[in-house]
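User: quick one, fold this
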Amino acid sequence: MSILIAMFSFSLVMSISPGPVNMVIVSSGATHGIRRTFPFVSGAVIGFTLLLLFIGLGFYRFINTYPFFLKYVGIAGSTFIFYMGYMIATSKPQMDIEERTRPTFPQGFLMQWLNPKAWLASMAGVSLFSTPDSNQLFLTFSLIYFVVCYLSLFAWSVMGDKVTIVLNSESRIGNFNKLMGGLLIATACFLLYSQFA
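Assistant:
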């Protein structure tokens, strides 16, 4: 029972803590609402779960042999996160926002595969909740993570949607988009800097 609690706690902390994906979700929830943000949430959750399975079921050996691979992921991820931040920060502050500006399922999926936080969470999870002789423990962890991650990211979209009580004018929406986009750009710059520090 204690191992299940540990799996749940790890999954919750890694999923609910602020990160690039969560920032996009809260911004999208505020701009587009929960229902239109759900495809991005689903893409992020499914993308992360497949990344976790990919690493846990064998790719971790490649990473252990060639650790510089994570540096390339970090650079590509920082660039994509910077792009998403720019798109949010420069989006038009309209009350009736255009559908084409809404984050999509493929963007959520891709963002996880390029998100250094997702790679580090996966590597940590694999090292904590896998055994060399069986995949059963790791697969149980992956299932728990999938459920907890869905609930956590959905909670971020609800929080973004509730922010619309305050964001009731185009100028407030514009300032919110600039703030969220700026935070993403700052995160991308920090991640990029950390690759060379």
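User: anything notable?
Assistant: The radius of gyration is 17 Å.
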